[in-house]
Write a sequence for this structure.
């Protein structure tokens, strides 16, 4: 078997038993990254990776190793990386060589993981198809004419094409789970506050959350353990102990109560996706779970609430990108106003500009109450729905995306892209943890199962996903040509 | 609520963005489509609902007011588009 056919867990064992070295692994994956035409990377950091791999090998030689020591990964280009370009998929940050590490980067460095490079993404994490990147679209490894999902599209494609044993992602409205679903990999968006946001380029600060993208739930458990935890540099990070997520993976699902929201199976859901999701849920019944219908009556309001709240937060966050202290500056500005306006207009793409303008409008005098405040109140109703449901069930299951991956270039208008986020947005609004795991194929394209838990139940979600993966082999399916 | 071209130009200016004359029409249409979408919220009765600005029910953490940052101005100014004498430079603001 070749290195890329192993899971992260298997690579970890192999390194521990000294069956191969991190330098060998790293060279193998760099070669795969270099030979790939998916456009999954914005930057490949060969030299740095080899340097990190050599260090990892020397640590392994003296028995000083952590969970991820010597394991290569693709790092979403939204995480600041000291001395390495951190563009967030935007022209405005194309010249930005970060002078510091994000906490997630620091934790991965401390565990001596090996960064292969920075993964492509929708500009500033705004998009559902990775078509909004300044560096061009990413191709779905299952069908190169289709989108990989977004915004963590490069991260998802890299894992699905076995260019990288794992990736990091961030999820503001579904940006880990939706590309995981459309590329047939495992993705986990943790509870808001579980993983530090320090050094993660901000989109919508009350929704952004980082998490792992992997082949299996077991691998996700290993990565989450490394990146999670309290960080005094992030005032919204939670001061809660990080459990050993691997420990409970093998717990029984006997007695697990699964809720199926009727609202997630209504119009707009593709038949093939629906069938795969329902079949997957049946597997859980065989594992001892019971299934009951629940209602999340405000589900449909997640789209309008999100597309007010996220743009409002982004219009404020992105005001820092002004061409003065870092990033792109226009040629020969004639005055300060011209510097701001042209640097931003030339530096931002269309979708980012739209969201900034919607945010500026919704926060402006006279409209604040009607839009922003109304959306925050609606957010409370959406969040309350989940708490009502969790009185009756342990987890909620449904589809991640109403369809499989669509053709690159086929969704031209912004609103049709927004509608594809229908099942993922409410989870971010509520701040809950949720996963996408491979649950089938529809017309040869992957379908993900959405598993939503109550706050701080990542351990249970990973356990549930792992038990499913013990019974099924959807997570082992690879795109054609990736063997 | 529907925006006209003039209002969109004003919003663009507030956002420090420039909308080209020839794309003003299509941007106005896009923004109006988005506003139509979010208009759905008016179906909800939210009079007695407390706004939720943050997902976790937590209180703001406080810390001692002490200096924790070291001076890294050279490092930060290294990546700036234009600097001089330890300042960030922009076009002349006051003659």
């Amino acid at each position: 078997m070749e290195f890329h056919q192993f899971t992260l867990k298997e690579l970890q064992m192999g390194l521990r038993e000294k069956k191969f070295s991190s330098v060998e692994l790293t060279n193998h994956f760099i070669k795969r990254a270099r030979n790939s035409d998916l456009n999954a990377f914005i930057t490949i950091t060969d030299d740095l990776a080899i340097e990190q791999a050599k260090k990892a090998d020397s640590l392994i030689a003296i028995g000083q190793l952590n969970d991820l020591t010597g394991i290569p990964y693709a790092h979403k280009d939204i995480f600041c990386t000291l001395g390495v370009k951190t563009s967030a998929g935007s022209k405005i940050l194309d010249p930005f060589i970060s002078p510091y590490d994000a906490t997630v980067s620091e934790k991965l460095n401390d565990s001596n993981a090996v960064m292969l490079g920075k993964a492509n993404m929708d500009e500033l994490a705004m998009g559902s198809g990775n078509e909004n990147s300044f560096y061009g679209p990413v191709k779905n490894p299952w069908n190169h004419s289709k989108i990989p999902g977004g915004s963590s599209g490069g991260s998802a494609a890299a894992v699905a094409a076995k260019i990288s044993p794992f990736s990091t992602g961030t999820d503001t409205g579904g940006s880990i789970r939706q590309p995981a679903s459309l590329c047939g990999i495992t993705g986990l968006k943790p509870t808001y506050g579980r993983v530090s946001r320090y050094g993660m380029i901000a989109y919508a600060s009350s929704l952004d959350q980082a998490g792992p993208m992997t082949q299996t739930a077991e691998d996700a458990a290993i990565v989450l353990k490394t990146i999670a935890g309290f960080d005094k540099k992030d005032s919204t990070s939670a001061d809660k102990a990080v459990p050993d997520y691997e420990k409970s993976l093998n717990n029984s699902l006997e007695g697990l109560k699964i809720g199926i929201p009727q609202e997630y199976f209504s119009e707009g859901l593709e038949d093939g996706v629906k069938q795969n999701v329902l079949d997957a849920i049946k597997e859980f019944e065989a594992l001892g779970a019971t299934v009951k219908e629940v209602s999340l009556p405000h589900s449909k309001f997640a789209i309008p609430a999100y597309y007010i709240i996220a743009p409002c937060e982004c219009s404020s966050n992105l005001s820092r990108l002004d061409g003065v202290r870092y990033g792109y500056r226009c040629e020969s500005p004639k005055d300060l106003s011209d510097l701001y306006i042209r640097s931003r207009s030339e530096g931002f793409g269309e979708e980012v500009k739209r969201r900034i303008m919607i945010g500026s409008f919704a926060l402006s005098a006279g409209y604040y109450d009607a839009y922003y405040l109304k959306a925050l109140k609606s957010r409370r109703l959406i969040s309350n729905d989940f708490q009502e449901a969790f009185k009756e069930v342990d987890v909620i299951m449904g589809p991640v995306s109403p369809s499989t991956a669509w053709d690159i270039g086929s969704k031209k208008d912004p609103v049709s892209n927004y509608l594809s986020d229908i099942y993922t947005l409410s989870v971010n609004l509520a701040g809950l943890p949720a996963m996408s795991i491979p649950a089938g194929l529809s017309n040869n394209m992957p379908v993900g199962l959405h598993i939503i838990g109550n706050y701080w139940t990542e351990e249970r979600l990973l356990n549930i996903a792992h038990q499913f993966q013990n019974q099924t082999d959807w997570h082992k399916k690879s795109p054609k040509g990736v063997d | 609520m529907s925006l006209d071209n003039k209002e969109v130009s004003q919003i663009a200016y507030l956002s420090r963005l420039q909308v080209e004359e020839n794309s003003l029409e299509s941007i106005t249409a896009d923004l109006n489509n988005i506003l139509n979408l979010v208009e759905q919220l008016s179906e909800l009765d939210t009079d007695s609902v407390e706004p939720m600005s943050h997902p976790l029910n937590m209180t703001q953490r406080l810390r001692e007011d002490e200096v924790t940052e070291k001076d890294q101005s050279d490092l930060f100014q290294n990546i700036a588009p234009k600097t001089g004498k330890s300042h960030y430079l922009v076009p002349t603001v006051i003659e």
User: Anything to note?
Assistant: Residues 30 and 36 of chain B are 10 Å apart (CA to CA). Helices of chain B lie at 5-14, 21-38, 73-77. Residues 5-42 of chain B form one domain.
